[in-house]
Amino acid sequence: MAFREIQRSSAALLASILAVAAGARVLFLGNALLWTDEAYSVHLAHLEFGRLLEKLLSESTPPLYYMLLRLWILAFGDGEAAVRALSVVFGLGAIAGVYLVARRFLSSRAAAVAAFLLALAPIHIAHSQQARMYALLSLLAVGLAGFGLGFSRTRATRDLVGFALCSLLLLLTHNVSLWIVIGFTLAVAWETGQARAVVALATAQTLTLLAYLPWLAVVVHQVGREATVLDWFLPHWHAKSPLLHLADTLWSFSFGPFPYLLPALSSPVAESWLVRGALLAVLAAGVVRAFHEPTVRLLVVASAITLACALTYSSLAQPVYIPGRTDHYLLPVFVWILGVGLVTPRLRAATWLGLVAYGILALSVLAPYYAHPSRDSSRRFLEEIRTRSSPGDIVVTTGLTFAEAEHGLRGLPVRLEPYPRSAREHPGYLSWAEILSDPGRLADDAREIARTAARLPPANRVFVILVPHAAQGPLVTELPRVLDLDPDSGEVFSQSVIGTSVRLFVWKPHPR
User: Fold this and answer.
1) Distance of CA 435 to the CA centre of its chain
2) Which of 88, 317, 352, 403 would bridge 427 by S-S if both were Cys, CB 3.0 to 4.6 A apart?
3) ω before 420 within 30° of 0 (cis)?
């Protein structure tokens, strides 16, 4: 009876934490327009499998998330809240997994603390509200760690199979997952300390590699494209040393700043050095437990190897280590170690005080995030087009607005024309340096759009979503030669949650 009561109490506690986490993740879920990366996710999810694989040749991610999103859209639709809800499910799954793994291998107190920390972690909430693969990464990382800890302790075949399966799924979710797969594989092999277990682990991971081989050929092609796909990140990477990027990871896992994510995630108090010092002290207390507890030792060693691989590759080959984004698979490990540090004090009051302080600081970050103005106004420029457009109108998208317009105007009888034209094939990114290096092609693209617009009947309109960039110059020059500008054009809107501004112009053909 006592055991059943403990089980019921544990289930009730986990349910309470998940209820809080769910509330934080569904709040304002559908308020904002899908920003560029999210809209690109939906664009890819709408493609047939063969076309998806063809598109991903010029991307930097594998297909698993987009395939799951496609199935999700078939079941629940592609509205903003609907497509983001899949990440909410992944995020809640990661919280439940953090609790269950910690309860099995650490303690019930550490399990509750770690799950609470992840439930209110601002970075995890943000990724759980985006139609991207990062929430799935954290969920699969929990599974990888849990099965790895299980195999290191029991040598059970089911744990080994689970570890290999999570490794494969991680590799099919994001290419950067290679580092955490290497980190946990080596850490588990070292922790087992038995030749027979190491051979079994090596065999399982060899089979994982064989299953991954069909996609590995695509990865080789993608590696050659990463310099283009991630050219926006190069200045940020070279502006800091690898150790400072590692520090950015620690701050983004806690209370910020959150580089390359959302500017609304900020709080001067939460980012103070007093708070950071306390956080590092608690984290250090958790790391010290590695000298006495095999579970913590495995987590620390796996994290160290993972970070070393990621930072070394980014320093010597291509920068793919983006704090607050491509390091997200380590967030569960961070909250486990932080949770262990919080329950280290003999006094329970110290643990409660730490949890209350964490909750207050997390809320101080989340309050402006939820209130960010662009979450209310970001979709207005597409709503303006929906209100004013007629069948046969043309909508010209510039920069990276094609995927957003494609999603926001889906079902509307208008024609989308991207500028530059290459944005149709690569609506998730543009290499501005490459585009500006060929002004003749830009001019040809502008003239082609102008000729298409000139053939419109007098009753139709041309809507131009114009982003502020030098590449738009030829388009701005060509359109006035064949079109008349509506006098009320030029209103400025917020493009997305990342705050980019756009101007919406409306044109009509010259009278014939």
Assistant:
1) 26
2) 403
3) yes
Beta bridge partners of 419: 398
With tokens 């099965």, the residue in question is 147
CB atoms within 10 A of CB 172: 19
Beta bridge partner(s), residue 483:
509
Residue 401 pLDDT greater than 70, yes or no: yes
How, if at all, do strands 394-398 and 415-419 pair?
A: parallel
User: Domains of the chain (ranges plus CATH)?
Assistant: 2-372 (no CATH), 375-509 (3.40.50)
Omega cis (within 30) before 214: no
Angle CA 437–481–509, to nearest 5: 120
Q: Which of 302, 268, 270 is nearest to 287 (CA)?
A: 302
**Token couple for 187:** 């850490």
State pLDDT tens for residues 358-380. Answer: 999 999 999 888 876 555 567 78
Distance CA 463, CA 6 (A): 63
> pLDDT digit string (tens) for 414-431?
999 999 988 888 888 887
What is the model's pLDDT at position 432? 79
Nearest to 489 by CA among 476, 473, 471: 476
Distance, CA of 104 to CA of 436 (rounded, Å): 56
